[in-house]
Amino acid sequence: MAVSTTSPLFLLYVGLFVVAALACFVSLTRLQRITNADTRRGLWALLLTSGGWATAHVGFLVSSTISLQLAWYTFGLVLGLAAVGAWLYFCSAYTGRTYHRNPTYRRLAIAVYIVLVAVKVTNPLHHGYFTTTAVATPFPHLSVYTGPLHWTAMGLSYALAFVGYFMLLELFTEIDLDTRALLVLVGITGLPVVFDIIGYTTPYLIDITYEPLGVAVFAVGVAFVYIDQFDAIQLAGERDEPIIALDASNHIRDTNRAAQTLFPDLDGAEGTPLKTTLPRVADCLDSDNAILKLQQEDHLRYYHVTETPYGTAKAGLGRTILLTDVTDRERYREELVRQNERLEQFASLVSHDLRNPLNVATGRFELLREDVEEIAENEHAAAIERALTRMEDLIRQILSLARDGQPVEQWDAVLLSSVAQNSWEMVETNAAELRVEDDLTFKADPTRLQRLFENLFRNSIDHGGPDVTVSVGVLPDRPGFYVADDGAGIPESDRESVFDPGYTTREEGTGFGLAIVAETVAAHGWKIQVTESEIGGARFEILGVETVE
């Protein structure tokens, strides 16, 4: 069939679908600015399939033979159906749902797609999907008459597409940001249905699917005009916290209701610099302290201020400011700091008040030792000396317990083998042996970590004997390490009590060694548990360390 290349309407049709294809393909280059990966993938698939669909329409219109026209038309049917799946994937991801990740839905979608594609490509055998005839109006072209299988597939496609529209409409109506522009763009994607109906029922338009034109307008609008707002709306849909959207010049572009309630000055502040309208928020972003304190009526609240640049690859395109209420956490942290300060003051006071008379007693005892020659053989004098030494140990360990329980503020990368070896050298080990089975690099306070190992090593030697073998290694299935020995072990009934201050099974022990270990572990945010080693001894496992590659 000869194709008319002079009809203005024909040229208009070809031109519109060429522009639609180019708009979809060019818009693909802008999608890297979309933050959410799933949304980016869904929109990429939608534009790719829609651009290919428009290209197939161009091929259908300009081809000079019926066989080529049919091939292009069938190719367009296949891509059009794929575009429905891409649309649903995009809508699910953009609205924060997980349908697109559900394995059952994905398998079902693939199965339906394969069945419908098979029906379309085998149309020459059954002719149940469409038939064709050459017509001369409104310009010479191959007119397609749809059959019952077409209407079944089209009904399913439009029903699924409507589900996507419903998800987007629900998002746009629930959040507080201005969504009118995006709502119009989404509406335009459905507008070509009107042209479909006109083409099917009247001779004024040819009977062809016009959906790629609507997707092209949507693609250009999102990718080139409203991409920052597109990103901000998705973030706002995922959050109930106050949100402030800024443009590339740090001027306020949009806010949600929660932000306006928190900051009344935001009312009518669109277009003004953040520094001028909310200087304290701007200062939080520019400083190392991201906590904003706000006095609300008769109580103080704390907000963690974070920013998310638009796009994954570039900054400077605008950003979204999120304020998360962390009042409970900050109050707990401040109370913990005050409690630790009181604890250290108490420990220092007690140790100071005890150390003074202890030093006097120790000094007088040394003078007595010099004056009385037989004192070294006196059992009462020996008991006094042991008591004075024990008091000194208690004072030292009370101070250590108070200080090691404070939250860690200085984190450094440490090597398990190095810390273990250095700590072993600080302990009186006699004939004991240390074995470092494997190694690990993780973050910790090196000084406190060394005291942790020293106390664990002393515990193994005190309870396992002078020739005990102590092993240090990495936990095989979790981020952490262990210290184990081949001693007598710890009875299961005592494993919860061994970390209590003052708990000891040795008459000469202070009972603070493992308590200091537990406090050090807690100060790092780790966890510790007692189990049995492979050969029946004690095994202490420290869990939750942050490893360093």
Automatic annotation (TrEMBL):
Domain of life: Archaea
Catalytically driven reaction(s): ATP + protein L-histidine = ADP + protein N-phospho-L-histidine
Annotated TM spans: 12-31, 43-64, 70-90, 110-129, 149-169, 181-202, 208-227
EC number: 2.7.13.3
Keyword Ribosomal protein: no
Positions of the Histidine kinase domain: 349-542
Pfam families named among the record's database cross-references: HATPase_c, HisKA, HisKA_7TM
Keywords: Kinase, Membrane, Phosphoprotein, Transferase, Transmembrane, Transmembrane helix, Two-component regulatory system
SUPFAM superfamilies: ATPase domain of HSP90 chaperone/DNA topoisomerase II/histidine kinase, Homodimeric domain of signal transducing histidine kinase
GO molecular function: phosphorelay sensor kinase activity
Ranges in coiled-coil conformation: none
Entry-linked PANTHER family: HISTIDINE KINASE 1, TWO-COMPONENT HISTIDINE KINASE
The name this protein goes by in its record: histidine kinase
The species this protein was found in: Halobaculum saliterrae
